[in-house]
Amino acid sequence: MKFDLTVAVREQAGKGAARSMRRAGKIPAVLYGQDECLSLIANPDDLVKILKSHAGSTALISLTVSGAKSKPSRTALLRDYQVDPVTGALLHADLFEISMSKPIRVKVPVKVIGSIPAGVKEGGVLHHNMRDIHVECLPAALPDHIEVDASALTIGSGIHVKEIGARDGVRFLDEPDQMVVSVAAPMSDAKLEALLTSGAGAAGEPEVLAKGKEAGAEGAGAEPAKAGAAAPAADAKGGDKKDAAAAPKAEKKEAEKKK
Question: What is the pLDDT of residues 144-191, one digit of tens each?
Fold first, then answer.
């Protein structure tokens, strides 16, 4: 899909100039590529129309640059943009100039088409594994999107990059064995509950068992000691205390005798 966009070269740069532009209903933009970089002023409404189109980042833009010293007419792609996180208003745009005679590499959105997959009707879950595919082609051959028919997929099956129908002049750059779309078997409530339960048990069991073993070991050693082992232990402690108290008295008596 192709769009027309008129922009103007801007001389001023910086945050202050950008704020002034936005207050005037315009936004700053930059044009890269073809060994040149231009600072531009753009109409945000025109760019929003391109962004909202189904082509999006793959749309070819016929650019008319007012005030350009050379090449007032160019072809570009909308490479990147910034929006206000609160209002969602478009704040800045990056455009990339291309040559219609040179191949380009672009990510093209994947569009799943067809009726409801057979596997989904049986209770499976459709997974959109790849949202876009990296392609190489001339700008004129650039598709708006890559269609993938998933209606025949059963549970456990999928479509790989290598199984997508070839497009004239378009080469896929992603790995051939990458899964684009698939249908997986649903996880039953019982299986999910079992996994969650086993996960919780695995995390808590070692601590519980360790405490149980320690308690058992203390209990096993404590009960036999109640009959006889506890009394000698108490006597030993008592004996230590008596000896400690008697030592200073003996030293005092020896000192008095010397006097």
Answer: 899 999 999 999 999 999 999 888 999 999 999 999 999 998 877 777
pTM of the model as a whole: 0.65
Element at 233 (helix H, strand E): helix 230-258
Which domain range does residue 206 map to? 188-218
Question: pLDDT tens across 221-231, in order?
Answer: 444 444 444 44
Whole-number pLDDT of residue 195: 75
Are 10 and 87 in a shared domain?
yes
CATH no. for residue 117? 2.170.120.20
**117, 102, 113, 187: which is closest to 145 by C-alpha?**
113
Distance (Å) of CA 165 to CA 24, 31, 132, 148: 48, 34, 15, 9
Q: How much is the pLDDT for 222?
A: 44
Total count of domains within the chain: 4
Residue 217's φ and ψ, nearest 5 degrees, are: -65, -40
Whole-number pLDDT of residue 248:
52
Residue 101's contacts (CB-CB under 8 Å, 6 or more residues apart) are: 138
Considering the domain architecture, whether residues 197 and 135 belong to the same structural domain is answered as: no
Which residues are within 8 A (CB) of 79 and not within 5 positions of it... i.e. 6 or more apart? Answer: 32, 57, 94, 95, 96
- Per the domain annotation, does 223 fall within a domain? no
Beta strands per DSSP E along the chain: 2-9, 27-32, 38-42, 60-66, 73-83, 90-98, 104-113, 125-127, 132-137, 146-149, 158-160, 171-172, 179-184
Structure tokens at 115: 């009726």
In a domain, 110, yes or no: yes
